[in-house]
Amino acid sequence: MKVNILTVGKPPIPIESTFGSTGEWIRKIIPTEWESYIINYSGKPFLTEKISDSWIIAGSFSSITDTSEWMQTLIDETRELIRSKIPILGVCFGHQLLATSMGGKVIPNPMGMEIGYSEIHLTEAGRKTYLYEDNLDGFFVCQSHVDTVIEPPRSSIILAKNQYGIQSIQYDEHVFGVQYHPEFSSGLMCSLFDYYRIDNTAQDGHEILPDLTVSEQVLFNFLNALKKEK
């Protein structure tokens, strides 16, 4: 089984020097039976890259609201990727990219940046999808983003929310987006707190690290479902 990890841009140098690229953050937790390939978007078509069974679109320090030509090209090609019916999981920026490509609307969140540990809650539809298998309600996740999907695409299904807005969407049978980061480690989260000069003990009152195993399991559920179908 093969998965392509699409990355857009690089993390800030202090973070990349310790933890690597956004694609490497995801690759580190992908089960070893999967062959993973990191493809960094360079402004050129990426669909002709390595043939794979699925795609994961990583988070990015870029903003989907950027009106540059390269961003529009990325949106257009992502739309073609969705039409190909290949399974896709979009993470944070990837989630916003999927929504925009399918006609949804992304804006800077009026509530400001969401960063730290937060609890999200599943909708009725979320409790029924394999992405959140065996999870009846809410769980804690890692967050680091400014933009948010304010209007989901038509025919999409909202799977999870919290006080900051939409946290997970299903776009097609095997196309999902999650606003949070299932791939984040506690060390990476602390590094982001330091980078943004945020007191991590103040985040949602969590002085002790919350249990993030359910959040990480979401990525495994996505891949495991595809493996069962092969």
Describe the structure.
With 230 residues, the chain is α/β, with parallel strands linked by helices. It has a single domain, classed as Rossmann fold. The chain is 30% helix and 29% strand. The strands form two sheets. It has a nine-stranded mixed beta sheet, sandwiched between helices. The protein has a two-stranded antiparallel ribbon with strand order 5-8. Helix 3 (69-83) crosses helix 4. The longest helix is centred in the C-terminal third of the chain and has 17 residues, at 213-229. It starts with a strand and ends with a helix. The relative contact order is 0.17.
Task: Record the SSE blueprint.
Layout: E1 2-8, H1 13-19, H2 22-27, E2 35-41, E3 54-57, H3 69-83, E4 88-91, H4 93-101, E5 105-108, E6 114-122, H5 124-128, E7 138-145, E8 147-151, E9 157-162, E10 165-172, E11 175-178, H6 186-195, H7 213-229
